Amino acid sequence: xxxxxxxxQDHFINPRNVGEIENADGxxxxxxxxxxxxxxLTIRVDENQVITDAKFKTFGCASAIxxxxxxxxxxxxxxxxxxxxxxxxxxxxxxxxxxxxxxHCSVMGREALExxxxxxxxxxxxxxxxxxxxxxxxxxxxxxxxAIRENALTSVEDITHFTKAGGGCGKCEGxxxxxxxxxxxxAAGEPTGAPKKKRMTTLEKIKRIEEVIEREIKPTLKKDxxxxxxxxxxxxxxxxxxxxxxxxxxxxxxxxxxxVERKLREQVLESLIVEEDK
Amino acid sequence: MAVLPDQVIYMDNNATTRIAPEVVDAMMPYLTxxxxxxxxxxxxxxxxxxxxxxxxxxxxxxxxxxxxxxVFTSCGTESDSTAILSAxxxxxxKNHLVTTKVEHPAxxxxxxxxxxxxxxxxxxxxxxxxADGTLDLQRFKESLTDDTAIVSVMWANNETGVxxxxxxxxEIARECGILFHTDAxxxxxxxxxxxxxxxxxxxxxxxxxxxxxxxVGVLYVRKGTPYIPFMNGGHQEHGRRGGxxxxxxxxxxxxxxxxxxxxxxxxxxxxxxxRDKLERGLxxxxxxxxxxxxxxxxxxxxxNISFEYVEGEAILLHMNQHNICASSGSACTSGSLEPSHVxxxxxxxxTAAHGSIRFSLSIYNTEQEVDFVLxxxxxxxxxxxxxxxxWEDK
Lengths: 278, 394
What we know:
The complex is a heterodimer of chains A (278) and B (394). Chain A is α+β, with helices and mostly antiparallel strands and 278 residues long.
């Protein structure tokens, strides 16, 4: 069961501003029924560029409904200029917070607002012009980069919680990791805390395995008089030969699985299996 | 604020069940006075061993099996892992498993992991299901090869209640010399089972699905079936499962099985009638609602219904306002972003999969409760539909 705040509960059970403004000045449609949530936001803007009314219709879970309801409450009476600056975090904060896995509901609210404002001003939505990275949920690189920046995301898992990208088939995980590395300064090559799996070219894989062995594993084994050599990489199978003291050590199997395999899984790919060349 | 049992309408019995008061009574002496170790040589321990034997007999009777074929475990998941891993170990030359696309995670994730993590050795055939959740026997026959070590197919699906013809499938597997395991966690106690008349080699059951406590399960191992234990340790269970027995829970499970045998007829008449009333009522009064799963080839207690254009978590939380407990196959309730793998395997469209609710009844449900749900749910669905951007013009 999700831990929802009282505000989320309240806006879910008693949603405000449900419906559609007839002949609205701006309409924003985001999400789809396949994705599991969708929001239609309609706004009325007066001659002073103030949002005088906002209504919503949402298909989705409690936090999607609460985020939409809260958004409409925040918008009423707000200057268009200020509305343009609203972020998903503002919506989440107004609700007293959302479970991490539900942050994408607040992102959906913000995106609907942007779409409605763009519809009103006649502008083209910059986010929609990006390249689609996650095909399951139709998330573009621009949306992902913005979510990373604005919310200080540090892992692929975070990206999924905030944008849904990577939450379906998982094929885009490599791209997401690359986007994260590009966006977060100095994050390239660093472990991100997210499980690493799937989609890495063989060449990349070998290079990274070599790096980790040279940088971390070898020096550690050498301290105990041992050594290690990479023999082969075939799919997820990494064959190594243990040398020096390791070669005759009765706990070399433990070293291999508990240390070498663990390190490589942490830093290269979760699915790697390390075997000894006999 | 805690919600107390007499305040809720509990229709989530495929998730877990109330411990029967008779079961609690049977367990209490073994939680208080009779704490001896059943393996000990003195009477104070030996009498506990006798209580285990009685429970073993009661469980065997419900399953139509011999007491010697009953191995106590900690849960259904342990039973599943034990059976499948044992079959692979006793058939070292065979690397193929046959299962279905709609198994419980206890079997599904084990098979997935075997395929990806044990040295690429194993490969798995996952049989598809039809739109009504049923299996194609011809397809099953064609999936069996000389390399197949074990077939693992659930008896009843936990989400839809759909029954698979496991008895027939076990016969087919036996003709090919292939071991057959069934996860019968949802079936035991709800439908009659006579294992000695079948070719089933392994069967898993879980205590807390039939009014016994959580933390106790059984693996039925047909006499003579090659077997290698999963939990290694002492000589308990004749060396088939190490670890000191969870005595009180096992005694409780024995009592629960005896009760299930007594109440089987009620389950299949009164509970079925309640389920049918609930199902007909909901489908009849709520537009754009549909049944997931075969209408008759199904457990008597389960109804899985989709309410199109609304989302399951939102429905559940509104039901929670009325203290009605049920489950959903929607993405949001799973914590993942995709709806139930069972409904997807059945090809249930997204419009319906996200809005699926599973009601699972037990002998403790009453007609008044069903009437209350029937009176409450249409309003919830209607309210959520006024919010749904997809509902207009429907």
